[in-house]
């Protein structure tokens, strides 16, 4: 095959310049389209080239053949490279084109012979600066502007991180990004990169394959002056979620905190969903902070104490932004973690002190005598410390009832309360506990050691429960009257079973504290109609009462409804007593009748 030498050399020069190849480039002309593996295998038969790798190929209509650019491992020596090579398949030979030594030398001596634009720009800048003001300051300023411009251009064209490959194929192939992650990186490149519009479009198209590339090509063919943002919008419509802003907002309102999920992790999950809602115009952007706080209060089912400490219900009118809220929640979580570690360390110290005291009492009979007669002041100090800090559910030391995971032991709790009461009454004198009696074994004289028997609970210490039969929205039930409670409480399990049609209203700024010293959680409040028996209030009467809905206790045999003083029952009883006997006991009991009627 005969080809114009000047045409092929010009093609090779341009190709070498574009691929940054000089002494390791060779071009071969093949008559048909072959696989890259076949081309490389044929070219590697020329030993002086070494290992050969195909860098590109293109078909020329005027030459009726394919031009293939190959990169060689060895430096090209024009005296050793043959003009043709016979392919492995045995067809007609392929013509080889290389740059001569004069072309390479000329390129090295004058590397800027084709870069006339840079020289012209520099001359124009210097000439304008010198023509206006030929002072040294003007020349230095012009040189600085030129260096800044050239430095910025080089950083924009080469110093960027390529986007990962995305094709839109489902399931996502190995080595490709998922659509959501790829779209985040693409928007970051478009908004933050300082490159030109053409460079940004090229970066997007370089990372696309398959169906995604076809979508972008359709957009490019439809509009001549298309922007990178339109590329991303088209990909979002083609591969993104088809849900509307209202659908996404509805799904956002249904998000709940998962079991074992930290409140900060739940907040970050809310923020990702809220960002999609705002992007689809499900809500205005200025309401973003308020909606975030509202859903956090609604969906955080296992973090009532954290939300109470943060006072988010009172701050809904001026809610914090995402970063401030995340910082406050993480600080509260860190505080609770440090408190839990401190409690564990404190309980370990108490246990070690008890073990040391028991060991000492077992090894020394005199110590046992002092403990029985009440002369060991150090053991009294340890006992007073443990009695101030024990569980009201199981009676064990080192934790409190809200943190208890053991089974209920009322007898042990009552015994510890009795010992604590006796100690306060007798002035730091206390009888030995059951643990000390069972674990202490030694030989002593009968005249010194006195046996202490277990005393039964005195009669009259525990009274009967004050329960009353009533109707709650027509449902008969036995409720507990608690004059020490200011609120009426209905447990959640009973509410779900009998009052599920009654709506629950939210409550803010209310903390309910129990005997254990911890805040009692609640879901909200309901308004119910309670009808007492005629013998209880002197006549059939229905009262409208507000009641809190709270999670049920872990202990069994608990009344599902607790009537507090807000039900006006005690006020009604005082009024009946005054009407029947003429005695006003409302003032004596501290009941304010005018507050309820």
From TrEMBL:
Stored Pfam families: PNMA, PNMA_N
Superkingdom assignment: Eukaryota
Annotated keywords: Metal-binding, Zinc, Zinc-finger
CDD domains xrefs: retropepsin_like
Organism field: Cyprinus carpio carpio
Stated name of the protein: CCHC-type domain-containing protein
Gene3D superfamilies with a match to the protein in the record: Acid Proteases (2.40.70.10)
Transmembrane segment boundaries: none
Keyword Ribonucleoprotein (UniProt): no
């Amino acid at each position: 095959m005969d080809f114009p030498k000047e045409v092929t050399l010009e093609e090779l020069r341009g190709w070498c310049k574009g691929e940054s190849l000089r002494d390791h480039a060779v071009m071969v002309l093949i008559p048909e389209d072959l696989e890259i593996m076949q081309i490389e295998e044929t070219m590697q038969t020329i030993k002086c080239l070494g290992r050969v790798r195909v860098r590109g190929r293109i078909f020329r209509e005027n030459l009726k053949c394919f031009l293939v650019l190959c990169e060689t491992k060895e430096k090209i020596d024009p005296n050793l490279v043959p003009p043709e090579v016979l392919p492995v398949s045995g067809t007609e030979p392929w013509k080889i084109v290389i740059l001569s030594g004069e072309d390479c030398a000329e390129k090295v001596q004058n590397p800027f012979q084709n870069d006339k634009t840079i020289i012209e720009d520099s001359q124009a800048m210097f000439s304008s600066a010198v023509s206006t003001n030929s002072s040294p300051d003007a020349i230095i300023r012009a040189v600085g502007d030129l260096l800044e411009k050239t430095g910025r251009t080089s950083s924009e064209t080469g110093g960027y991180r390529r986007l990962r490959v995305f094709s839109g194929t489902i399931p996502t192939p190995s080595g490709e990004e998922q659509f959501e992650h790829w779209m985040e990186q693409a928007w970051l490149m478009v908004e933050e990169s300082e490159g030109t519009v053409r460079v940004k479009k090229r970066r997007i198209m370089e990372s696309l394959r398959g169906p995604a590339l076809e979508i972008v090509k359709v957009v490019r063919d439809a509009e001549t002056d298309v922007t990178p943002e339109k590329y991303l919008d088209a990909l979002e419509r083609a591969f993104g979620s088809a849900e509307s802003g209202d659908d996404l907002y509805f799904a956002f309102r249904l998000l709940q905190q998962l079991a074992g999920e930290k409140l900060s992790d739940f907040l970050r999950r809310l923020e990702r969903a809220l960002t999609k809602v705002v992007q689809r115009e499900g809500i205005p952007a200025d309401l973003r902070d308020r909606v975030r706080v509202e859903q956090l209060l609604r969906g955080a089912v296992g973090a009532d104490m954290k939300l109470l400490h943060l006072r988010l219900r009172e701050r809904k009118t001026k809610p914090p932004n995402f970063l401030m809220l995340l910082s406050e929640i993480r600080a509260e979580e860190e505080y609770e973690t440090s408190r839990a570690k401190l409690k564990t360390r404190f309980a370990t110290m108490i246990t070690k002190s008890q073990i040391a005291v028991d060991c000492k009492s077992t090894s020394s009979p005199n110590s046992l005598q002092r403990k029985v007669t009440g002369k060991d002041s150090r053991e009294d100090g340890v006992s007073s410390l443990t009695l101030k800090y024990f569980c009201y559910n199981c009676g064990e030391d080192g934790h409190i009832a809200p943190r208890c995971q053991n089974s209920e032991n009322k007898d042990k709790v009552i015994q510890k309360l009795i010992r604590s009461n006796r100690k306060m009454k007798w002035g730091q004198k206390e009888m030995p506990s059951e643990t000390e009696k069972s674990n202490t074994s030694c030989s002593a004289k009968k005249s010194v050691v006195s046996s202490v028997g277990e005393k039964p609970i005195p009669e009259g210490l525990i009274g009967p429960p004050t329960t009353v039969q009533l109707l709650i929205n027509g449902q008969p039930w036995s409720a507990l009257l608690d004059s020490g409670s200011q609120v009426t409480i209905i447990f959640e399990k009973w509410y779900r079973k009998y009052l599920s049609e009654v709506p629950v209203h939210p409550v803010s700024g209310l903390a309910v504290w129990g005997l254990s010293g911890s805040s009692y959680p609640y879901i909200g409040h309901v308004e119910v109609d309670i009808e007492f028996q005629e013998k209880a209030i002197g006549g059939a009467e229905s009262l409208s009462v507000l009641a809190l809905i709270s999670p049920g206790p872990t202990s069994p045999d608990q009344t599902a409804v607790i009537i507090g003083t807000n039900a006006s029952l005690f006020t009604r009883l005082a009024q009946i007593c005054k009407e029947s006997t003429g005695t006003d006991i409302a003032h004596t009991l501290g009941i304010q009748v005018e507050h309820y009627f």
